[in-house]
Write a structure and sequence with these properties.
Elements lengths: L2 H57 L2 H9 L6 H26 L7 H29 L3 H21 L2
Helix pairs in contact: 1-3, 1-4, 1-5, 2-3, 2-4, 3-4, 4-5
């Protein structure tokens, strides 16, 4: 397959993955609002906003750094990926711990505090997917990334309803 065809194919797969992921996301939000009601969805949104505030700092911009560095020649990929993964693992662990502890100092209802603690574990373990995606993106395997985006949307739907 020529380079132009490979780039075009990866672009199509990436766009379709994002489109399907967004459609699934809208459907999930519609179902959640109906299922949880006004107060329940407000609590859910508060939990997500709180936990993703900490999650944004846990990335440290390493996604883009990994993509850029893996495309350079002469780099020991295994050593670099190990260092990035370790850094992301320990910073993610520290920040999710801080999120789980600091929420108890806030004037949120008990259900929100418990939800933040549970969500901090979920977000921490799902962050390892981001490491894999950065390697795949650095190697132009966008079909994996688009597929993972759809999987995450469906998984979030399953997780939300399985917690009952």
């Amino acid at each position: 397959m020529s380079l132009a065809r490979k780039v075009a194919w990866n672009t199509v797969i990436h766009v379709v993955g994002k489109l399907l992921g967004n459609i699934i996301g809208v459907v999930v939000v519609a179902l959640l609002t109906r299922y949880l009601g006004q107060e329940g969805f407000g609590n859910y949104a508060t939990i997500l906003a709180y936990i993703f505030f900490f999650s944004a700092f846990a990335d440290l911009g390493l996604y883009m750094i990994t993509i850029n560095e893996l495309n350079k020649t002469g780099i020991d990929r295994r050593r670099f990926f190990s260092a990035v993964y370790s850094l992301r693992f320990f910073t993610g662990m520290a920040l999710m711990f801080m999120a789980g502890v600091s929420v108890w100092l806030m004037p949120y209802p008990l259900i929100v505090k418990q939800g933040v603690v549970i969500a901090s574990f979920t977000v921490f373990f799902r962050s390892s997917r981001s490491n894999s995606n950065s390697v795949l993106s650095g190697q132009s395997f966008h079909e994996e990334t688009g597929d993972n985006r759809c999987d995450r949307k469906v998984d979030s739907f399953d997780w939300d309803f399985d917690s009952d």
